[in-house]
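Suppose a colleague, Dr. K., hands you the sequence of a protein chain of 111 amino acids and asks what its three-dimensional shape might be. Before reaching for any lab equipment, you can write down a predicted structure in token form. Begin with the sequence itself:
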Amino acid sequence: MSKDAGCEVSKVRRMERRRQCFVGRCPDLFDGGVHGRDEAKVYARLCAVAEEWIELLDRDGTVLPPASASKSFSGKFVVRVEPSVHRRLVLKAKAEGESLNTFVSKALPCA
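The predicted structure, expressed as tokens, is then:
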């Protein structure tokens, strides 16, 4: 296992408005995560926890799951929604003069 394995795993941090704190997760390695009010500290702690997990898995002889950070994505996926949601999205897209795909593609980065 390389010393840089921790750099290859996905680390996600975001502000949770409900909790009023930053939450960091590493879904490639473990469930749960770390949280705090300082984003930089949350990320630093997340990196440390990820490194600890990698060391434990390596020590146990467990193969690391493939890192999604280095995975290439096609840009296509299927989403199943209620028919009423589908209808509402189509109507909103038409009102904007866009295809459903374009409308949703613009909306998803804001999610």
